[in-house]
Design goal:
By secondary structure, the chain is of the alpha+beta class. The protein is built from twelve helices and twelve strands. Helix content is 41%, strand content 11%. β7 and β8 form a beta hairpin.
Length: 378
């Protein structure tokens, strides 16, 4: 069985339509890269090697689970192997010097540093610290990757690169194209979203296609919005439920990348490029693999909306009940890497019952039913 290791924040559909409708040709390299991230296939053995590399990596053998910020514009000069457009290696590429893909870039800030060398480095460093604190304090998760791996982030990736991604070992952020997108490291929910892919991979490891891929994106959004609410000290009913509020330069027509409360309403650029995300099974897009890997960024609005409905019906902080239910479902052994919405929804209901009792389980099921999911009758 083959696996896709890369996880892209943006859908290739969004970039493709922006290029065709606005003529922003600087986005062409980003489109090529996103398509590569989302389509490059690796063997199970390759995937296991990356998992093993992540769990074994530590620059400092004493300090594990530490933050390291790297600058993609400052390549390490002595590296024999050089990563090109897609920094995810196969086994034969890793075997010569056993390097980590992000090692090609110079460390500019690490755990214990008091002063940031630049504002972007400082933002990412501080935000990762807050994400790490959220996992520990609110979810009781000591290590988000399920191991003592260091947390590596690469900033200033590419040229005019308008995306953020997880490559199975580190998170990468572009500076945007300067016309449609600004930098991708200014939103803590995006940083949390990318790190969440590492957490998801250590648990359910949802296949990045069709409904399991949409669950992959949705759970990352759920963790992203909870971190944002944690930092802003917002309850479920106080939050605006927007992901990536600082991404688009035109924040009037495009206030955010995604809306979890109203999927499909986050942006409307030029009255043509309208958010295609759906929030109900009646709107479900049955897409082929060649379009957004079967709709992983489009159909993810459905489980996003289900989480929003549960969290707001419960009130209070999202992580106290709804978040714990979702995390328990992701970690539930019965949820497979090929899970569809129904399997995951059933796991949230059963875990709600175990953790909080019948009433919360009933509310959890109703949140899924409100987005059109039909449960088996017993």
């Amino acid at each position: 069985m083959s696996q896709i290791l890369g996880r892209s924040l943006l859908s290739p559909c969004l970039i493709s339509s922006l290029i065709s409708e606005t003529g922003v040709t600087k986005l062409n390299p980003t489109l090529i890269h996103i398509n590569d991230v989302m389509s490059r296939i690796y063997s199970d053995e390759d995937a296991q090697l990356h998992r093993n590399s992540l769990s074994a990596c530590s620059i400092d053998p004493v300090k594990n689970y530490s933050r390291f910020i790297r600058d993609a514009q400052r390549p390490v000069p002595y590296k024999i192997h050089r990563h090109s457009d897609l920094p995810i290696c196969q086994r034969d590429q890793l075997s010569l010097n056993e390097h980590m893909p992000h090692d090609d870039y110079t460390v500019i800030m690490s755990e214990g540093d008091d002063k940031a060398p630049s504002a972007p480095a400082g933002y990412v460093f501080d935000y990762i610290g807050k994400v790490r604190a959220f996992f520990k304090e609110k979810l009781d998760i000591d290590q988000m990757f399920g191991c003592s791996a260091d947390i590596n982030a690469v900033i200033h990736y590419g040229t005019n690169y308008a995306n953020a991604f997880w490559n199975s070992l580190a998170i990468f952020f572009g500076d945007g194209d300067g016309k449609v997108f600004g930098p991708f490291y200014n939103d803590i929910d995006i940083i949390a979203h990318e790190l969440a892919h590492g957490f998801i991979s250590s648990k359910a490891n949802f296949r990045y296609a069709f409904q399991s891929g949409a669950l992959n994106e949705s759970v990352a959004d759920v963790l992203g919005i909870m971190v944002k609410q944690f930092v802003q000290n917002e309850t479920a009913c106080e939050s605006n439920w927007l992901i990536g509020e600082n991404l688009f330069i035109d924040q009037i027509n495009a206030p955010a990348l995604r809306s979890m409360s109203a999927p499909g309403t986050a942006y409307a650029l030029n009255n043509k490029n309208v958010d295609p995300q759906v929030g109900h099974m009646s709107q479900y897009r049955d897409l082929p693999m060649r379009i957004d890997n079967g709709g992983v960024h489009i159909n993810s609005g459905i489980p996003n909306k289900a989480f929003h409905l549960l969290a707001t019906s419960l009130g209070g902080y999202t992580w106290d009940v709804a978040g714990k239910i979702w995390i328990a479902a992701v970690s539930d052994p019965i949820v497979t890497s090929m899970a569809d919405f129904k399997q995951f929804a059933t796991a949230t209901v059963s875990n709600a019952q175990k953790l909080f009792g019948e009433q919360i389980a009933s509310q959890t099921q109703k949140s899924w039913e409100k987005v059109g999911l039909v449960f088996d009758k017993h």
